[in-house]
Amino acid sequence: MKNRIRTRKYAIVDLEATSSSSLAKIIQIGIVIVENGLIVDQFASDINPHEPLDDHIKDLTGISDEQLALAPEFGQVAGQIYSMLEDAVFVAHNVQFDANLLTEALFFEGYDLYIPRVDTVELSQLFFPQFEKYNLTYLAEALKLPLDQAHTAISDAQATAQLLIRIQEKILSLPRPVLVQLLPLADHLLYESRLVLDDLFEQVEDGLAANLELVHGLVLKKRKQHQAEKCFSQDFTTNIGLLDMEPRQAQVRFAEKIEQHLTDNQGVHFIQAKAGIGKTLGYLLPLLSQGKQKILVTVPTKILQEQILAKEGRLLREVFHLSIASLKAPGHFLKLDSYWKTLQREDENRLLNRFKMQILVWLCETETGDLDELKQKYRYQAYFDEIKHDGKLDKESLFQGWDFWQAVQEEAAASRLLLTNHAYYLSHLKDQDPLMQADILVIDEAQKILLAAEELASQTIDLTSLIQSLQSKKDRSDSLLRRRLYESTLFELNSLLTDFRSTGQREVTRDKLEQLHQNCLELADVDLLDLERMLAFYSYFWLEDHFQNEKRIAHLRASREELLQLARLIPSPKIFCISATLEISKQVSLADLLGFQHATSDYLESAFQDNQELVFIKDLPDVIGLCLEEHACFLVQQLEKLLAGQQPILVLFTSRALLLAVSDLLELEEIPHLAQYKHGQADHLKRRFEKGESALLLGSGLFWEGVDFANLDQLVLVISRLPFENPRDRFVMKINQHLRQEGKHPFYDFSLPMMMMKLRQAIGRTNRRPSQLSQVFVLDNRLQTKRYGKQVARFLAHDYLVTEASLDQIPSVIHQFFDE
């Protein structure tokens, strides 16, 4: 393809400087000349800034003061630099910094540099739309570009030159109709970056590749025709071998249990299996090898759903040509009609127009239309809210037969294996979606469907948005009576929020909602209909605050008094409930809480884990008694000790506030880390952590039970606090009331066992294969001070190597485990 490229002269420049400010001085320059898709010349030189470098710059670039002392001054090489650049297009990765700094330096030497500028960061975002990040190191790895010494000027310039060539090749590979639509939007690119498109437009060939189709001006990828499914062996180990994997002893025993129950008359089977045995293939392969039944698998989170699709699902597709569909809410998919309409209008926002361009390129590549493939969409969420699918398709749609959501539904109807998550499954089960009525249902991590069922039996109102809407209506109302009713409604809602945020009291008693309910009835406003129905139907109410894009959003939540009996809703004739723990306690089983009266239960003994060590610290402070700042300071002190071991460290928190407080202190100490709620979504942080971008990851929520770390050979896990559920949580309170009515003890029969289950799941997530070494530090003194601490220790000692140590012994304990 390179010999097809005919272009003007591009000068790719990279500078290293004394800082990133406008007052910085150049200390190193690299220039690479590209013409017609080829590197034709280059220049590299150190530059003496006549000032010492700070330690950060030395560490980043590897350049020393002694090295620069021997280098020429900028004025000695300015003429040569100018002669290389004067008739070229200036190209850089983040062109503003390099171009401004070099232009100013040349000006002071008597050279005026007036040449066009091109930014390869933005061009990369446009032409490689599915990448997570666009820094040069990431792009070099993703595109397999040579980058021998990152942050060395000539090495970075050479990598950027190869990146420019790759971008040029990508442009030439695009269909001409796509370029025709890109060019009118290209003026919204930074500086003169559109020149790269203009340069190549006439060289783009007419016609479309065989796998593409032009549909009302959009170039879309044709759907693949499914190949006939290959036969599965009746032998589990044979199937595992065909997937080029080695069977594990516990996995084989688990698969045998599945096989046994496939032919019996019992409809519901509970099987206990711990994380890390390969249970996904352990249940999928036996189920798939027996006939052609339709199988539906539901897992707790969308992240786990995507992990199974990307790992086990990909293998089954490639080897057995299995038809698989992943079910998600329509809002995850692009609605072509909505997107097409945005292309017909002119928008001034530069970022919005770049996303319009990016999607034009992406549509040539995507087979699913799943917007989750666009990792940067969070940067303009309002636009993606406009173009995401609403689950509806007009008969007059321009894209009838090409609609992505329609395709997902059709594929799901024809697929033998469906993957979804608990929330989607339950909501669509309630709506009597026929796709939820499979021959075999697998509920993976069945204990988590309890909470999802509670969400189904509850309702949520966004009070922040409602208050804004009512305020606007009050201001526009011509009726004095309606204005007074709106004022009263706003007063009631704001009073609820004020009390909640000043006292922290989440529960709202019904008497505090009576006036609000009366106002809703009198106003008969369509925007108050959901609130009116909530107040009439539910018996328990509470308030919650959530943070979205750094904005605090208040929600009013409501639920019924009784637990939802999930067993009554599920229509599947054969059900497998998989869980790490079936008996929550001697008095309470998972089957009881889900409402299954007649079910079999199988308990697979787990093997002792000698590649994982749990460390209980003896001399911990009272974590419950510490204030937030004290607890954060204590954790940072321990993390500094742990980082000396040079293993990746995952820290799990039960409190968002504590996580952010620790992150703030780490920033003050200039300790690199990744923090949930600060640096991205959980799945993105996981990938960055596994790639080694940072040795320290702070996580909560999904990281306790929804994210695996199989790609790391060594890992340290820090439990900042035992993961008890909040006793004030509405669901926990409902469970407790249910157990009390049955004469059971809520703490010992539910809260403590559920905590131990969650703790064991977290530990299991960091030990996914026999060759992986992981060490777990539990920094909660309640293991030593509470009566139940010994029970927890015995519970863990059954499966894991347990060691006791003092705080001072942490470095030596790490060394003994990983290095000896």
Automatic annotation (TrEMBL):
E.C. code: 3.1.-.-
Protein species of origin: Streptococcus suivaginalis
Span of the annotated motif DEAH box: 444-447
Name under which the protein is recorded: 3'-5' exonuclease DinG
Family: Belongs to the helicase family. DinG subfamily. Type 2 sub-subfamily.
CDD domains with a match to the protein in the record: DEDDh
A cellular component annotation (GO) from this entry: cytosol
InterPro entries in the record: ATP-dep_Helicase_C (IPR006555), DEAD/DEAH_box_helicase_dom (IPR011545), DinG (IPR006310), DnaQ (IPR006054), Helic_SF1/SF2_ATP-bd_DinG/Rad3 (IPR014013), Helicase_ATP-bd (IPR014001), P-loop_NTPase (IPR027417), Ribonucl_H (IPR013520)
Group of enzyme by EC: hydrolase
